[in-house]
């Protein structure tokens, strides 16, 4: 079957789609699947770059044999040890017992700890090169993007950088593999959801990595998930640069928890007031039925965040608290916050959110607005004041 996908002369795509897994890392929804990308360089020495999750090993091996066409693998480069990429290493080693595994010191520590593998290792240091014949690989250690062993591999002849999880995102590749073959807007949104939820906490390390490879002449960006960027590699580098600097656009995300709609009514009123102030990008999101990864994705985009909750057991409504805990985990910076909410008798919801805000040293644009059961005339005025303060603050940026 002719399914060989060539990237350049001698460099091939051997990634696989996973449309079976519901939750990436058993946490992040995959409504349209995900890919585990892998690549082969055929030369005097043949190289496989990264592997795939073990559940997809059969399809993967088949592709490898198709491309090698009787040849063998000399090297396996491991840019990242997370099991969605390292899962098939043992199988590949059995298929090609003479193959050397290329990684750094940390890679090999994890290889031993995860799979008890310690033979046939070829340790590289930052900046080392391996000559394959026509092609030549150069390795750049990029720790904590998003694991300590993560590295990138640059192919000097064809100017391709294999970046591991960096620049990758959710979504299977349904036919199209390259950025110019797919609905790139869909993938950009899913790459930001991946970035913000999985890599986002490590913004400074992403910046360090980008500076390290920033001087290279890059024609193709080849990550381990999502499309391969051959037409506009500058676009994904630019987006990543912006996200890892916590840069924002003008807009507000209002996230709320509600049981009977009273807190939701306040959220809608704030949203209307923001529109009156000329804010166009407004997202109103229900924490009970929206997975927090989508909420965090929107917050990664916009400057303003308004958090609202009802009170539940004298505290924040649990679905809403889950969002805030996740947001705190990410170490989000450069955002401005507003708070509103309801209580029945003793309160605690709004107080709980304010505690999170203070603990994380997030900036609040106005005093919180809290009402008993449902908003009345005077509280609507306060909500409008909150929206005005938010609009003014985000326009300063
Ligand atoms: Fe990863
Ligand atoms: Fe990954």
TrEMBL record:
- Taking the record's annotation, the residue ranges forming a coiled coil are none
The cross-references to Gene3D superfamilies, in alphabetical order and at most eight, read:
3.40.50.360, Ribonuclease Z/Hydroxyacylglutathione hydrolase-like
The UniProt entry, under InterPro entries, shows:
Flavodoxin/NO_synth, Flavodoxin_CS, Flavoprotein-like_sf, Metallo-B-lactamas, ODP_dom, RibonucZ/Hydroxyglut_hydro, Rubredoxin-O_OxRdtase
In terms of PANTHER family, this protein maps to:
ANAEROBIC NITRIC OXIDE REDUCTASE FLAVORUBREDOXIN (PTHR43717:SF1)
Q: Which GO terms describe its molecular function?
A: electron transfer activity; FMN binding; metal ion binding; oxidoreductase activity
Q: Its family?
A: In the N-terminal section; belongs to the zinc metallo-hydrolase group 3 family.
Descriptive protein name:
Putative flavoprotein
Q: Which domain of life is it from?
A: Bacteria
Q: Which residues does the UniProt record annotate as the domain Flavodoxin-like?
A: 252-397
């Amino acid at each position: 079957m002719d399914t060989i996908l060539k990237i350049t002369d001698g460099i091939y795509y051997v990634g696989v789609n996973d449309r079976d897994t519901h939750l990436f890392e058993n946490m992040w929804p995959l409504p349209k699947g995900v890919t585990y990308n892998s690549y082969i360089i055929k030369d005097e020495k043949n190289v496989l770059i990264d592997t795939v999750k073990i559940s997809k090993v059969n399809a993967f091996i088949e592709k490898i044999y198709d491309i090698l066409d009787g040849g063998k693998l000399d090297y396996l480069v491991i840019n990242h040890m997370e099991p969605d990429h390292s899962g098939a290493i043992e199988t590949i080693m059995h298929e090609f017992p003479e193959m050397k595994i290329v990684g750094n010191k940390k890679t090999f520590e994890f290889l031993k700890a995860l799979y008890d593998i310690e033979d046939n290792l070829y340790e590289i240091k930052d900046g080392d090169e391996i000559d394959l014949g026509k092609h030549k690989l150069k390795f750049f250690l990029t720790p904590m993007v998003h694991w300590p062993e993560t590295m990138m591999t640059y192919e000097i002849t064809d100017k391709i950088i294999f970046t591991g999880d960096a620049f990758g995102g959710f979504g299977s590749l349904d036919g199209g593999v390259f950025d110019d073959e797919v609905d790139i807007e869909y993938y950009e949104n899913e790459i930001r959801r991946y970035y913000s939820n999985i890599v986002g906490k490590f913004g400074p390390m992403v910046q360090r990595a980008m500076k390290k490879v920033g001087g290279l002449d890059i024609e193709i960006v080849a990550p381990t998930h999502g499309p391969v960027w051959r037409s506009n590699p500058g676009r994904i580098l630019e987006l990543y640069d912006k996200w890892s600097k916590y840069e924002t656009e003008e807009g507000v995300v209002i996230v709320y928890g509600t049981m009977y709609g009273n807190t939701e009514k306040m959220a809608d009123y704030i949203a209307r007031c923001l529109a009156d102030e000329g804010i166009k990008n407004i997202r109103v999101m229900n924490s009970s039925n929206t997975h927090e990864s989508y909420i965090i994705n929107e917050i990664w985009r916009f400057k303003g965040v308004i958090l609202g909750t009802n009170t539940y057991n004298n505290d924040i409504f649990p679905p809403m608290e889950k969002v805030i805990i996740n947001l705190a985990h990410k170490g989000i910076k450069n955002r401005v916050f507003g708070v509103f909410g309801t209580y029945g008798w003793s309160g605690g919801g709004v107080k709980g959110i304010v505690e999170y805000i203070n603990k994380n040293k997030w900036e609040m644009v106005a005093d919180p607005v809290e009402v008993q059961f449902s908003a009345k005339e005077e509280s609507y005025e306060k909500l409008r004041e909150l929206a005005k303060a938010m609009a003014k603050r985000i326009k300063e940026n």
